[in-house]
Amino acid sequence: xxxxxxxxxxxxxxxxxxxxxxxxxxxxxxxxxxxxxxxxxxxxxxxxxxxxxxxxxxxxxxxxxxxxxxxxxxxxxxxxxxxxxxxxxxxxxxxxxxxxxxxxxxxxxxxxxxxxxxxxxxxxxxxxxxxxxxxxxxxxxxxxxxxxxxxxxxxxxxxxxxxxxxxxxxxxxxxxxxxxxxxxxxxxxxxxxxxxxxxxxxxxxxxxxxxxxxxxxxxxxxxxxxxxxxxxxxxxxxxxxxxxxxxxxxxxxxxxxxxxxxxxxxxxxxxxxxxxxxxxxxxxxxxxxxxxxxxxxxxxxxxxxxxxxxxxxxxxxxxxxxxxxxxxxxxxxxxxxxxxxxxxxxxxxxxxxxxxxxxxxxxxxxxxxxxxxxxxxxxxxxxxxxxxxxxxxxxxxxxxxxxxxxxxxxxxxxxxxxxx
Length: 420
Ligand code: AMP
Ligand code: MG
Description:
Shape: elongated
Largest sheet: 6 strands, mixed
Bound molecules: adenosine monophosphate, magnesium ion
Number of helices: 7
Helix content: 10-25%
Strand content: 25-35%
Radius of gyration: 31 Å
């Protein structure tokens, strides 16, 4: 048996960062930036008003108060998106809306609330300023967000919604990012029926292809469904060949020691493959290897293949532990580990055979402390417990288990807002 860490090291040692692509802006969400982004201009482009009010010369407001307003002649009104043709000279003001460029001559803005505008009808010819202002007040400076020619976003950054917005403010329609991996997904088993088909006696629906494809999309990859291979060499080879242009292949099932577990034999012929018994529960049997694939121009190339166990929970948990970091690495991400928290366990979990148990738990926070309770039956076929869980509590392989009240580390699958 090998440890979870050894298995992960081997997987990560065989996958590399993918090439770059020019991606439409909105599609780049979650991808890693493959260029340094400089700004060709200032954002905002001009000094502009932070408030609806009056652009004035601050010197004209000296001594102004509610009791003794200073009267200024209003020479123009300017809205966002237009430039006033008027200069603000001594004794005058320009009525200005938020975002509008500050007219020449003005050095500050007095907001409506500090004028007597509400006492006047229509756009007034004269305005009473009721507060003293200093130069620069309520003016947003040109380039205050982004200065022309400055480095705005650096290569290696993960594009989040804020980065998408920043790129749009620079007028970018596309951006260079590390491309997303195409991940081919193949289920195996004579007992499997595709969703949409009637369920005959002793058959079950192929759920793994769906949970795995959903995980691939969730973490930013592009799933490619290869359907169901039967437990025969011919069926498996035929299906596999449809996935040879992918960046990674995931199979589920067929890697244990049963009579019909042909994945290991067939894949051994298609490339190099290692079979591991990983010291973990669920998900003990796991296969990993490189299979001979094809690049776009038909040249030979090696594709990493992860043979996940067939049990629905095991295939999801092994995906989380091994496929997720591999996909993130291919996407150029550096933060491959899930966040871990410490929680008080509320149930007993017995560890009888020296494997690291990843128990499906529901984590909640009470009085500043995290608590985790089992999310239902822990059999590796009980997929609804995976649906209920928001974390995997880690019971160390060298322990006999944990008792209610013990502290455990929990690998969080979703943070608050999702399920916590
Ligand atoms: P195997 O690893 O092929 O022996 O499969 C282990 C268990 O997982 C068996 O009970 C299978 O029926 C079940 N199983 C395998 N593949 C799938 C699948 N794609 N969807 C749902 N259950 C599956
Ligand atoms: Mg099977």
